Amino acid sequence: MTGNSQRRGAVRKTSKKGSAGGTGGHKRGLQGKGPTPKAEERTYHQAYKRKQKQERRDQGRHQKEEGPELVVGRNPVVECLRAKVPAAQMFVALGTDNDDRLEEAVRVANSRGISITEVPRHELDRMTGSSLHQGIGLQIPPYEYATVRDLVDRVTASGEPGLIVCLDNITDPRNLGAVVRSVAAFGGHGVVIPERRSASVTAVTWRTSAGTAARLPVARETNMVRSLKELQKAGYQVVGLDAGGDHTLDTYDGTTPTVIVVGSEGKGLSRLVRETCDTIMSIPMSSEVESLNASVAAGVTLAEFARQRRAATK
Fold first, then answer.
1. Edge to edge, what strands does the sheet with 237-241 contain?
2. 174 with 210: CB under 8 angstroms?
3. Which residues does 312 contact at the CB level (< 8 Å), separation at least 6?
4. E strand residue ranges, 158-301
């Protein structure tokens, strides 16, 4: 008999429920589980843990920004009080040496009905995170941001050619504060910052701006490119500061409604922001210096445009 089914020891295997059914001529394949998830989506992967840690850090930073802030230092506190920055409470460290600035701060706080609380110096150290408070701190509420439309309306009401600074990739609140101070000093009308990946108006910003953030509106928008296009529609020329620009500060006419866009010293302007600008302008410098700090570049440009505008009105 052909075959070996009758060979001693040969066994036809069957399942417990009987013979297994055939495939009917169809080839059976393994069922796939789909594409492999990204590393940051796998709960056991280090990339996932890093992402979760960053999200918690961002959430904590956001919550901190939305809460009350402490402006510290005698000059910044006095400047904020003079500018009538909304304040809830003032803290003075026990044993602090008195001087004219501290006396003025206490006098103005009393006249405005701001409560003054004396605390141990180590407690003020803890509240501010350092010992550089000079014995005084002013608690301020979260900053109330404007919008680009608010800035445009403000300029229209003033009857002046608008001068606005937009910040791209600026993450240091000290740079933001310095830019706010320069814009106010040279007759600008406002500052625009993006909502994400940007410094916001915190106590450090208040301190650096020396209270000018109370007099100059800061707008915060979700999309910087969209904001620039809105300003262009309102009649503004958008000028991006970057090395190797089409124009230089020496030849550019800054007497018309102008938006100055400043990028970070390291990254510069982001690609989409750069492409949206009407002009890329550079600041003439010595060949020994490659770039300027963002706030310095903004200040130099604002000073030159302010000079041009003064000359145009004579």
1. 218-221, 190-194, 163-168, 258-263, 237-241, 279-282, 247-248
2. no
3. 255
4. 163-168, 190-194, 218-221, 237-241, 247-248, 258-263, 279-282
Give me the residue label for tokens 């999309």. Answer: 223
Sequence-distant (≥ 6) Cβ neighbours of residue 152 within 8 angstroms = 162, 230, 231, 234
pLDDT at 174 over 80: yes
Tokens of 310: 């003064």
Structure tokens at 23: 């495939």
Show the beta-strand stretches assigned E in the chain.
69-72, 89-93, 115-119, 136-140, 163-168, 190-194, 218-221, 237-241, 247-248, 258-263, 279-282
What average pLDDT does the segment 38-53 reach? 72
Summarize pLDDT for 235-267 with one digit per residue, the tens: 999 999 988 788 899 999 999 999 999 998 777
Q: What are 262-296's pLDDT values in tens digits?
A: 998 777 899 999 999 999 999 988 776 677 889 99
Residue 299 sits at the vertex; the CA angle it makes with 297 and 68, to the nearest 5 degrees, is 105
Q: Which of 101, 299, 113, 300 is nearest to 209 (CA)?
A: 299
Token reading at 4: 């070996």
Residue 46's alpha-carbon distances to 21, 185, 269, in angstroms, are 46, 48, 32
Tell me whether strands 115-119 and 89-93 are parallel, antiparallel or unpaired: parallel
Are residues 136 and 77 in contact, defined by beta-carbon separation less than 8 angstroms?
yes
Residue 252, both tokens: 């550019």
User: How much is the pTM?
Assistant: 0.68
Q: Mean pLDDT over residues 49-77, rounded?
A: 67
